[in-house]
Structure prediction request, 272 residues.
Amino acid sequence: MTTEKLMDLALEVAQLKEMPNDCGITVKGENIKKVLMGVDMDTPELMLAQQLGYDLVVTHHPRHTNVDMLDVLDEHILKLEALGVPRNKSQKLIKERKNELSYNQHVSNSRRSESAAQLLNMPFMSIHTPADVIGESIVQQFLDEKFKDKPGTTVQDIAEALEELGEYKNSARKPVIRVGDKESYAGKIYVLMSGLTGPGADVLKEYFEAGVGTLVMMHIPEADAKKLKEQNIGNVLIAGHMSSDSFGLNKIAEKWAEFGVETTMMSGVVKA
Prediction:
């Protein structure tokens, strides 16, 4: 098995036709039988993998250099358009968010892990959006079925329901309500877990104004939560970061297993 084939299988599970810019193969590999996978994999994990005899290290959060990575945020434009928000409106807001994030991106040590993998000659790849898309789909389908034709659903009902899923049940970090409260009516439930990272409070407001009542997300900065509370038009339920990432990673590993590739999980991955 090659790194390229493993990437293709991950994209297949996520039903993506091409590799997003937050994914990448930093060091190619072949004859891969044992994989070490985690949410955040860096130089220590690369060295550990070499010592333990693994053939490939897979990180969820990107550890490769791609100056176009922020373009993945454009997915929010398409998501909002499906909810009725014109592209021209959301595009301007996303452009502002990209500019904000570019400051940190520009000063980051983007080749730190990349250079370590090359020196160790350890195959290394990042799989971000595919895992997020898979998890987003799983959680959305679960909540749609769970609360179909139940207009009285509250945000607390959603939080409790999430723990029926293994990744949330087994996580150390439980779902928490960041905007709204336990008694708040949920309204339309929208799971937002892909699109690179949080799009910012101004973009999240567009989801609410488009008819969403409760956003179920992986994480949110305190400043964004505070701003949304002041707007007082929707709810935000944070399902959990590592646990939400784990849905997609677990599914990808299951797919690889069908082709004889054994994956060991570490660094934040929660087993179902």
Q: What stands out?
A: The chain is about 45% helix and 15% strand.
